[in-house]
Structure formats: C-alpha cells, structure tokens
Amino acid sequence: MVLGKQSIPFAFRAAFACTMAVLTLISSSRSLAGVLAESDIGISSAKDHDRVEIRLGESAVVRVVDEVAEYKRFFIDLYSTEPGFPDRVIPLRNGILRGLQTIAYPDSKVLRIIFHTTGSVPFRVADAETAVPFPATSVSDTGFARLRPTSRHLVVDVSRGGYPLPDLKPVGLRPLRPGGGAKRLVILDPGHGGADPGAKSIVTFGGRKLEEKDVVLSVAREVYRLLNKSPVVTAVMTRDDDREMSLEDRVAFAEKTDGDLFVSIHANSTKYHGRRDARGIEFYYLGETSDPALRQLEMAENLVDRSSLNKSESEHWDLIWKNMVKDNLDMQRPYGLQVANLVNEVFTQDVYFKSYNRGVKSARFRVLMNPVMPSVLVEIGYLDHPREVRNLAQPAFQQRIAKLIANGILEYFSQLDSELEFYQYEMN
Predict the structure, then answer these.
(1) What parts of the chain have a pLDDT lower than 50?
(2) Res 163: pLDDT
(3) CA 1/CA 382 separation, integer angstroms
(4) Which end of the chain is more exposed for a tag (fewer CB within 10 A), N or C?
C-alpha cells in the first residue's frame, strides 16, 4: 500500500524532500566516478575498536549520516559510485559493529553503506590521506549539499573508548566476507510458547490436543543437538522451555546474538490457506506477498505484539513499518530465498515431503525482520490435517524433520564457505 501525503507527518515529508534534493544536486552534476569492488572494503578489529577502510578508484562525494541514537546505525552515501557486487548484509562478530549493509540506488547513482552498531557508540569517518574527519549530519540536513566533501580512501573508526583514539594495534585488513569466525552460528526460534499455544490439533492424544508450541520446541531441540555435534557450527535457541516470547524479543535476541542464520520453526493451520486438505512443508523468506491467504497468516503471526499497542503507538508502528521495511525486504530477499531454496531441496529428497511439499514463499513476518543475517521460517506441517497431525505427534517423525532442517542448514553453509567442511547426517 502506498501512503498518501496526508498520512505522513510534515516533519517526515520535509526530511524526505531534503534528502531527495541532496541526491538530485549531487548526482545530477556528475557521471559515475567508479565501481567499488568487494576487495576494496577491508575490516580490522581490536579490543573496543573496529575499523573499516573503503578504497575508491576515483574521488567521490561523501555524505555521513548519524542515526546511532535512533536506530543504532550510521551510514555513508558515496555519490557517483556503484558497487561491483549485489546488495548484501554482512554480519560481523567479536567487535562493536554488528554488521555492514550495502544498498545501491542506481537511479540516483548513490551507493549507501550502513554500519549497524551494538549501541550508542562513538564513530568517526575520515579521509585516509588528510586524516580530516567528515561531518556527521542528520538525514534532513541540507548543509551537506553546499560542502560536497570528497575522498578516494575512507577510514571508518568505531570505538567504545571515544575520541581521540587510543593506540590501535593493526590486525591487518581482511577481505569482506559473510559471517567471519571459525564457526557458523545458527539461531533456532521455536514459535509461540507460554500462554500462546499457537495452532492446535483437531484430535486428541492422551486426552489432550497437540499444541504447536510443544511440537516445534521438540523439533528445535533436536536440530540444536544435531548442529552442535558439528565442529564448525554452533546453535543457540531463543527459548528452550515453555516460556512466552514476544516477536520483538525474538528479533532483539537475534540481533544481540549476531548469528549467521535465523531459523524460525512453526506448525501450520489450514484456516490460513483456504484449503481444508492442505498438508506438507512450507518455507518462507522475508518479502512481499499478494496472496490474500498469506496476508491472513502474516496478521496472525504478527498479531501478538500489536495487541498490546494503544491507538497512537499502533499508528506510530505502522509508519515505521511502512517506511523502514523496504530496506529490510530488499536486503533479506536474496539471502532468505537462497536458504529457503536449499533447505527445500533437502526436504524434497525425503519420500514423504517430496509428495507433500508446498514450496518456498515470501511473507512479511515480523520475526524475520532483523537487518544482520538471513532469516527463514519453516512450517513443518498442518496440525489440523487428520493424517498429518498423527505424524507430527510421533517423536520419530519430529526427529526426521529436525534432521532434514539440520542438513538443509549445513548445505547452505557448505555453499557459503568452501573453506570449512560441513558433513550432513544420513537419513534412515
């Protein structure tokens, strides 16, 4: 849905107009200065300090925008510059930066590099040759357009110790690559919990109905066990008991933990799909959907947090959602799709899930909206399908699902990092 002008506060419209004016002023007067290659970005770290160096073939106009206080991030716009690689999110660990994010705006000839921080930490962007820092402005500041500072070699320092900088022992630049570290870190998220049972079975087992929160916790625990047997993977869980967690808590956990992959595990219900005979596995990555049934599922999965908002807070949330979700969608789409496709391929090798496979789809699930790692949501089956629910109630079938999920994750990592060996588990 496109927002009408009257629904956007004047301050926001003014800020947006100022930003577009700057883009037009800078980009319209210059041709492309050059292409930024992946090897032109280097990262080094020391205690309480991260450094990122960006080398450009030609001088480019540089703008630094400070959004640390509001969104725990700042970004650099490089005008008349395009990337030599697709937009991406690069999670970082063992430092102050949580990740880097690149977004190209071809129409404006602008490359944006976003630095996601662990909190309100000081940062400085300077020209490497002159050591002169660039002023950090707000997104609505028009003064930048008059200055038009340029550089061909930027040094970005983020330090908990503040400035002036302490002595920084060089650790050497390393090529930019996803993840980093000796092991891959997976965050497993069993859906629902506590007073929120999720979907329920239509038949009883031992005198009670099967609840989604229990089934997905059992599957997640087995995936956790299998992944942690690998010498090159570590798994953690958002919850390991019957506790209730809000969607915001789950996203905050993911961002704080700084994983390489977020996998949310759920069980399905036919009432969201318009077919009472629906059954099988489904995979979701973050993206738009035009399917009315999936819109209902989105609302159901995203409803928990919204129910606690008053009217004013709800309107504020809507505005944030509609104006900030696009970057998340654009960044997550290719990575989430890649993970979902690979895990789906593993499931199609199983006899049951080859027959009952509902494929890969996109939806705007709040739990998938973290800006620092690929995220997928797995719907392991339908609790209100009379035959499938009997499978889902069996521990052996739950373990079978868990092994397939684990193998799909390992397959994704094996393609991501050829330097490490990821062994998959044999299916019985």
Answers:
(1) 1-31, 166-181, 290, 303-314, 316-317, 319-321, 323-325
(2) 59
(3) 30
(4) N
**∠ CA 117-120-126, rounded to 5°:** 70
Instruction: Tell me which of 3.40.50.2300, 3.40.50.1970, 3.40.50.150, 2.60.40.3500 is the CATH number of domain 6-175.
Output: 2.60.40.3500
- For residues 72 and 166, give the distance between their C-alpha atoms in angstroms, rounded to a whole number: 23
Q: Cβ atoms within 10 A of the Cβ of 369, count? A: 19
Reference 217, options 193, 247, 236; nearest CA is 193
Return the amino acid letter for 359: G
pLDDT value for 169: 42
Of the candidates 295, 321, 372, the residue with the CA atom closest to the CA atom of residue 97: 372
Note the CATH architecture for domain 184-416: 3-Layer(aba) Sandwich (3.40)
Q: Which H, E and C letters describe the chain, residue by residue? A: CCCCHHHCCHHHHHHHHHHHHHHHHHHCCCCCCEEECHHHEEEEEECCEEEEEEEEEEEEEEEEEEEHHHHCEEEEEEECEEECCCCEEEECCCCCEEEEEEEEECCCCEEEEEEEECCCCCEEEEECCCCCECCEECCCCCCHHHHCCEEEEEEEEEECCCCCCCCCCCCCCEECCCCCCCCEEEEEEECCECCECCCEEEEEECCEEEEHHHHHHHHHHHHHHHHCCCCCEEEEECCCCCCCCCHHHHHHHHHHHCCCEEEEEEEECHHHCCCCCCCCEEEEEECCCCCHHHHHHHHHHHHHHHCCCCHHHHHHHHHHHHHHHHHHHHHHHHHHHHHHHHHHHHHCCCHHHHHCEEEEEEECCHHHCCCCCCEEEEEEEECCCCCHHHHHCCHHHHHHHHHHHHHHHHHHHHHHCCCCCCCCCCCC
pLDDT tens across 328-371, in order? 555 556 678 889 999 999 999 999 999 999 999 988 888 888 76
Domain ranges in the chain? 6-175, 184-416
- Between β-strands 357-363 and 88-91, what pairing exists: parallel, antiparallel or unpaired? unpaired
117 has which bridge partners?
97
